[in-house]
Amino acid sequence: MGGVDKALLTLGGETLIACAISRAKPQVSELIVNANGDPARFAQFGLPVIADRVGGFQGPLAGVLAGLDWIRENRPSAKWLATFACDCPFFPTTMTGDLQAAAERENAEVAVSQSGERHHPVFALWNKSLAVSSESVLTDQGSRKMDDFIARFRNVRVRFPSDPVDPFFNINSPNDLAHAESLLALTRPSLKGG
């Protein structure tokens, strides 16, 4: 996107992060934002903003690990961390419940979303008890690949319908953003909650 902060791009008159918050918040008991840079740009949402604990923009795994580190330190009674990305504005509003049900049924430590033949490891549920930290994975092991990380644990994939719109459609370019605008007509009744 040419260096633009994707979270602050607008779709249907709302920023992508506002869309993500409206879809994610009903699915969790508490919501935090993982973002590097100035956290003040998200102040209007009134949510805690945490940065990656290991510098160098290590990718989405750094955000997942920062979230796990945060809930262990701040919410010891929590069992799961649900993760979402703000550049996929149509993710399912039932995602967390569906992932948790599958994880518990399969005794999995990680549950990952899937649509069609593609899995989406950023849209996942992570057991807080995973014996990892940002430093142990990113610094000590030098691992950054989500798939390699997930493969270390008992995991399950949960398939979500991709008709009429792939719920994990990802906005990575101006053309994607324009296409997402055209998809709003198909998703508008469910964009805010269904």
Descriptive account of the structure:
This protein has six helices and eight strands. The model is unreliable at 190-194 (pLDDT under 50). It has a single domain (6-191), classed as Spore Coat Polysaccharide Biosynthesis Protein SpsA, Chain A, CATH 3.90.550.10. The protein starts with 9 loop residues before the first strand and ends with a helix. The radius of gyration is 16 Å and the shape is globular. The strands form three sheets. The protein has a four-stranded mixed beta sheet, with helices on both faces. By secondary structure, the chain is α/β, with parallel strands linked by helices. Strand 1 and strand 2 form a beta hairpin. Helix content is 35%, strand content 18%.
Biggest sheet record: 4 strands, mixed
CATH superfamily, by name, is Spore Coat Polysaccharide Biosynthesis Protein SpsA, Chain A
- What would the average pLDDT be, to the nearest integer? 91
Q: What gyration radius follows from the Cα positions, in whole Å? A: 16 Å
Low-confidence stretches: 190-194
- How many helices? The count is 6
Shape: globular
- What name does CATH use for the topology? Spore Coat Polysaccharide Biosynthesis Protein SpsA, Chain A
How far apart are the first and last residues' alpha carbons, in Å?
A: 29 Å
Structural domain count: 1
How large a portion of the residues is in β-strands, by DSSP E?
Answer: 15-25%
> Helical content, roughly?
25-40%
Number of strands: 8
Structural class: alpha/beta
* Helix-strand string: EEHEEHEHEEHHEH
CATH architectural grouping = Alpha-Beta Complex
CATH class (first level) name: Alpha Beta
Strand order of the largest sheet: 5-7-6-8
